[in-house]
Amino acid sequence: MSGEPGPAAGRGQDDRGRYGEGGYNAGIAVFSYIAGGILVWSLIGWGLDNLLGTRWIVLAGALLGAGGGFYLSHMHNLTRSQLSDSGSAPQGRPEPPENSPK
């Protein structure tokens, strides 16, 4: 390792992931994760319903897919709220100024 910046340095990527500030691209990503999860797991449930002669596994698959899609979106930092201008300061009671008596 020579201490040189990596390939992502200078390209505008930061610790929020590849979607940066979010917005439209993050919304489309969240939608596609959830819709894709519902589609894939519903098809798996439909196949199991046909094999086993049941009718409820497709619904369980759809719910599992929606939950899994939301989980993936959350893990990719797409559903978290943006930090305020003050950074990651807690939203509780403000601290007193440094020169005030305690």
Q: Topology, pairings included?
A:
Blueprint: H1 24-52, H2 57-75
Overall description:
Helix content is 47%, strand content 0%. It is mostly helical and 102 residues long. The protein has a domain at 24-75. Helix 1 packs antiparallel against helix 2 (57-75). It is elongated, with a radius of gyration of 22 Å.
User: Span between N and C termini?
Assistant: 49 Å
Question: How many strands?
Answer: 0
Range of strand content: under 5%
What structural category characterises the helix and strand content?
Answer: mainly alpha
List low-pLDDT spans. none
Keywords:
single chain, membrane, mainly alpha, 47% helix, 102 residues
Would you summarize the structure shown here?
47% of the residues lie in helices and 0% in strands. By secondary structure, the chain is an all-alpha fold. This is AtpZ/AtpI family protein.
